[in-house]
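Narrative of activities, Objective 1.

The group set out to show that a structural description can be obtained from nothing but a protein's sequence at a throughput compatible with the screening campaign. Below is one input-output pair from the validation batch, recorded exactly as produced.
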Amino acid sequence: MKPFRLATAGAALLLAAAAATGTAHAGTPTAAALLQAGALQGVADGYPGVIGLVRQGDTVQYVHAGTGDLSTKAPADPAAQFRIGSNTKAFTATVLLQLEAEHRLSLDDTVAAWLPGAVAANGYDGGRITVRQLLNHTSGLPDYAKDNGFALAYALNTQPTRTWTPQALVDLALAQHAPTAEPGQQWSYANTNYVLAGMVIKAVTGNDPATEIQHRIVEPLGLRHTTFPTTDPALHGNYLHGYEYPVVGIAILDATTSNVQVFGAAGAIVSTLDDLADFGRALMSGRLLPPAQQAELTTTVPVGTDGRTGYGLGVVHQQLPCGQWAWGHNGAVLGYYSDWYANDDGSKQVVRANNEYHLLAPTKGQQDTAKATADAYCAL
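Output recorded for this entry:
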């Protein structure tokens, strides 16, 4: 699973249900029209379907192109559920920030203080890594998802019910190689960080991260179509089918049913455009966190050297090509790729999802739909 989209790399949008009929200025496309054009281009690039949402204040427009189910050819539904992948990380970080606000832990606690022995192999020492460094990806830990054997098995999708404990994933990461950087020294994206973050949540509360996210975020915000599956590999109700183009062969594969334990607190959540937008607005507006923790959420470390991208705690701050800055993240798991942008208070938002991902990035579809998402945000 990849992280948020950078300028040219990362994880990485849309016939409109509510087609834009006006223009901001004569000859200037609206945000919804730009997202719609990107959706159509995404389907032309090979995506089965693309859905998207543009929201400014209380005004919401939806766009869609292609199909949500290749077997029935049903149009891609902007109300459908999809796997949000690494967008889960903002939910996990929010729970830990809430626990800090309740004085139940500090983000400067070491991993070993809560998880003795969990990170203690191949030169890695959980006593030198803080919870904050997990959340902003400066721990120096490898990403278990980069293990070739793991990635191949996940891509083949032949074991959707295989059990992966969080510690087994951490152990897979630690075995890859010895440390290449000191904790806190540099940014390096690793799903391992958020698997450990989920383990810390359980150590502090006694509950799985899915339970805490349900009680602290999903229920208070009324996110009726957001779930955190822990064992069930299938989707239920109204959902986009997820697909992958195989590296070998020509037939696109249905990957809707896939292993949710492989990412857990790093990327297992299922949601919708509306629910993801509601969460993003609540998060950026300060509804979920006290001011001190909101400041921690949005304190970033540099990603790259151009000064245009910073990583906070489960959220990204990025300067778009138009010059505007936006908060957001993206998510990529087998069959699904999604992205969101929001301004500082969440009053301006763009969210989109594509129903194909085959563990390779960037593809032309990812680039074209991501550009449309950024262009739509800049047009708000």
